[in-house]
Amino acid sequence: MGVLIVEHKLGFIHANAGIDRSNIDQEQDIVLLLPENPDASAKVISQSLSQYFKKNVSVIITDTMGRPFRNGIVGFTIGSHNIECLLDERGKRDLYGNELKVTQIGIADELAAAASLLMGQAAQKKPVVIIKGYKFNQNQLCDSQSLIRGEEEDLFR
């Protein structure tokens, strides 16, 4: 099958370490690599757009990944700035009064997956999606590293 499952240096488990041959010209036999520091890249883009448009602009940098035990790829966050990535609901109550014990919502990944549908994966040529109207809170979990589960909590290792 020609696939390696590896832990990328950014912390996520990914097929082929995020090295991609799709959506780039193959005449020169090159591959596409992920940014060295996607959170830093998102910060530079966010600050530049915010200054240019005189608005508070958040940025999520996405990639796609396959998931264990599931067919299909989905968009996920590899870098972000100025947006909550993880909403921790643990300790809150659900609509029946039950305490939530493990619920953490991967907001940036949810938005990345939605954007990925609009961007497409083949010849659509839509590298940017603008999401308007999503209301979020600022919190301390605003970089993509907050989405990486530590080894001590990882159920699959």
Q: Any overview of this molecule?
A:
The chain is of the alpha+beta class. It has a single domain (5-148), classed as 2-Layer Sandwich (60s Ribosomal Protein L30, Chain: A), CATH 3.30.1330.100. Helices cover 18% and strands 20% of the residues. It is built from two helices and six strands. It has helices at residues 38-53, 107-119, and strands at 5-7, 13-15, 59-67, 70-81, 87-88, 104-105. Strands 1-2 form a two-stranded antiparallel ribbon. It has a two-stranded antiparallel sheet with strand order 3-4. A hairpin with a 2-residue loop joins strand 3 and strand 4. The protein is globular and about 60 Å long. The mean pLDDT is 87.
Question: Main attributes?
Answer:
157 residues; alpha+beta; 60s Ribosomal Protein L30, Chain: A; two-stranded antiparallel ribbon; 2 helices; globular; single chain; 18% helix
Give the SSE order as H and E letters: EEHEEEEH
Helical percentage: 10-25%
What form results from the Cα inertia axes?
globular
* Main sheet specs: 2 strands, antiparallel
Mean of the pLDDT scores?
87
CATH class type: Alpha Beta
- Tally of domains: 1
Query: DSSP strand (E) fraction?
Result: 15-25%
Task: Indicate the CATH topology.
Answer: 60s Ribosomal Protein L30, Chain: A
